[in-house]
Write a structure and sequence with these properties.
Helices cover 38% and strands 12% of the residues. By secondary structure, the protein is of the alpha/beta class. The strands form two sheets. A seven-stranded parallel sheet has the order 6-5-4-7-8-9-10, sandwiched between helices. It has a three-stranded parallel sheet with strand order 1-2-3. Helix 5 crosses helix 7 (142-151). The radius of gyration is 21 Å and the shape is globular. The two termini are 30 Å apart. The structure holds (2R)-2,3-dihydroxypropanoic acid. (2R)-2,3-dihydroxypropanoic acid (DGY) binds at residues 38, 61-63, 86, 273-274.
């Protein structure tokens, strides 16, 4: 933050929670740069409110579905995100959810806290083995590949689906085989979602996909909530079409479907994918680096819309 406050006049929102939209639109007026969170919608109204002097929107997140990138590009406004620095941490979170949901960790914790009398029994709270199983990774970019890398230590085999295929070296290194989505869903014991939210991936998982999965399968989502039709997931979990789900993200954040909160086979955490001290610092440094580069006339290191840069450079 010091790098910014020493060089620029800063208008900082340090109120509780996300900045209310009306205040955001008021306070963005006349600014040359903005560091935004995924709770801020950077759309036409935001860009209009900011004005033509706006140079950069530096998103403090790898996902940028909160930014209308086309609108930014048309106006020559640079948009950046924070990739790489959160890859490993988010992969760790996906694994934490995978293990927790598969082995009923949060349910066990709730059970003990409820004070219910218990004695050890051979059939008490049985979960699913993780080791030696098939991991299906949907979205095989940086985070998906890191999740797959961890599967080696559990002796799992990996299937992946993505619209982009990595090189065969990556497939070999991760011992990962490509499958069409339907095939992957039928084969995998654990399915972890790592796609960006786009019109194509909205509700990529709905009733049909849940029906294709094994009734013993565990679904994990650390990407974006709307990739899953949450109401359909509640129905599928209730009907034991799936064994369990581990969710970090929700369709209408910060709301969580009330059905999920009632279900013991849903492990839910509040969008903590990248939430470690080290990673959040790194994300902050990268967002600031992007901002200061752009305001200093340099190309930001993690630019989402290179066309906007060309447009600015071309005058
Ligand atoms: C992101 O970066 O997109 C996460 O959802 C928050 O870290």
């Amino acid at each position: 933050m010091k790098q910014v406050t020493e060089r620029f006049e800063v208008d900082l929102w340090d109120g509780e929670g996300a900045m209310p939209r009306d205040r955001l639109l008021e306070r963005i007026a006349g600014k040359v740069g903005a560091i935004t969170l995924l709770t801020e919608q950077v759309d036409g109204a935001f860009l209009d409110a900011a004005g033509p002097q706006l140079v950069i929107v530096a998103n403090y997140a790898v996902g940028f579905d909160n930014i209308d990138v086309d609108q930014c590009t048309k106006r020559g406004i640079l948009a950046t995100n924070t990739p790489d620095v959160l890859t490993e941490t988010t992969a760790d979170t996906a694994w934490a959810l995978l293990m927790a949901a598969g082995r009923r960790i949060a349910e066990g914790d709730r059970f003990l806290r409820s004070g219910t009398p218990w004695t050890w029994g051979p059939e008490m709270m049985l979960g699913q083995d993780v080791h030696g199983k098939v991991l299906g990774v949907v979205g095989f970019g940086r985070i998906g590949q890191s999740v797959a890398r961890r599967a080696k230590g559990f002796g799992m085999s990996v299937r992946y689906y993505d619209v982009f295929r990595p090189s065969s070296d990556v497939e070999r290194e991760l011992n990962a085989e490509y499958r069409e989505l339907d095939e992957l869903l039928a084969e995998a014991d654990f399915v972890s979602i790592h796609v960006a939210l786009t019109p194509e991936t909205r509700h990529l998982f709905g009733p049909e996909q849940f029906r294709r999965m094994k009734p013993t399968a565990v679904l994990v989502n650390t990407s974006r909530g709307p990739v899953i039709d949450e109401a359909a997931l509640v129905d599928a979990l209730r009907a034991d079409e799936l064994f369990a789900a581990g969710l970090d993200v929700f369709e209408r954040e910060p709301e969580v479907h009330p059905g999920l909160l009632e279900l013991d086979n849903a492990t839910v955490i509040p969008h903590l994918g990248s939430a470690t001290v080290e990673t959040r610092d790194a994300m902050g440094f990268l967002a600031v680096e992007n901002l200061t580069a752009a305001l200093g006339g340099r190309r930001p290191p993690t630019l989402i819309n290179p066309d906007a840069w060309e447009r600015r450079e071309g005058g």
